[in-house]
Amino acid sequence: MRRIGDEQAALRQLAMLVIRGVKPSLVFAAVAEEVGALFNADYSGIVRFEPDGEATFLAGRGWLARDGSGPAVKLDPNLALALVRETGRAARLDADDPTSPSLPEDLRAGGVRSAVSAPIVVEGRRWGAIGVASRGGPLPPGAEQRMTDLAELIAIVIANAQAHTELTEARARVVSTADETRRRIERDLHDGAQQRLVSLALQLRGAQATVPPELDDLAAELDRVAVGLTSALDELRELARGIHPAILAQAGLAPALRTLARRSPIPVDLQVRTEGRLPERVEVTAYYVVSEALTNAAKHARASTVTVTVETADDVLRISVRDDGVGGAGYARGTGLVGLGDRVEALSGQIFLTSPRGAGTTLRAELPLTEPNGVTVNRAWPES
């Protein structure tokens, strides 16, 4: 009963990692750690079988373990892992059992006395294998079946982690495509319609300058048209800026945020502590986090001031937008926070909203500055 309880506790730990969106490399490391502890093994490891017959080491625990994932290699045919790949069944090697296949020489030299491996089958495919080894003596009887049962449950964890990763990558592609479309529309508006309107406005002013003094009414009408044309041009520029801010691509995050602060109807205390340019996807997401928060503060919060802090630390960009308004903000009230959360999650980021009624609203986001290879999601968004 204690053994079953330990196994269930280990599987719960692994399931929680998937639910929290921990990247696959950490899930694999946790699998090796938990399995090694369950068998009290000197070594545990997990490998993925590749289509060409090789195997990729993903994670391990113990004296044979490497640091991180390694390149795909050919498996020694005498390894239990190789037997698992060949037969699709659990395999056991015991140095003290004359009926057992021989342990590879390098394992014998390392003092290994017993090794057990079992296949991990994901969606009907022999995905990989999990294995343990002991230097203190033979692994307990029934270890093969116990390992097989664990591998079946671990396969569910891996399938969920794999699906989570694929979903994240798809979401990131959607966000990237949408941002590229925004950039293209903004560029087309700037290089096309805006330039045409500027040219027409100059021509109109030139024509206005040639109107004889006795045609005052015509001059006044041309002036009204010119003013209207200038107003339309300003509106188009504002529209293009809302689609995608050109200053963000041209000058970077800090100048773009200063422009947002100047345009805000609420006084903004802006503090940006970053150096140089950040990855484009991070700058764009950070800009929209601040933009959405300032928009919500102006429309809904009835705030008198907003404090915006942006800084980098430990390969993470941290963003905080805090107002002194009425609070009570929630992501289910059409404030754009749902889409914002999706955008942050697509970068393996985290987003938090704290908005008690009568005590203001604080929106925080953390964006990794490295390439996303998994998702870390924490939508701490209260309803009120």
TrEMBL record:
Residues 23-168 form the GAF domain. This is histidine kinase. SMART domains: GAF (SM00065), HATPase_c (SM00387). It catalyses: ATP + protein L-histidine = ADP + protein N-phospho-L-histidine. Keywords: ATP-binding, Kinase, Nucleotide-binding, Phosphoprotein, Transferase, Two-component regulatory system. InterPro entries: GAF, GAF-like_dom_sf, HATPase_C_sf, HATPase_dom, Sensor_HK_TwoCompSys, Sig_transdc_His_kin_sub3_dim/P. The keyword Heme does not apply. Its EC number is 2.7.13.3. Residues 281-371 form the Histidine kinase/HSP90-like ATPase domain. It holds the Pfam family HisKA_3. It comes from Dactylosporangium darangshiense.
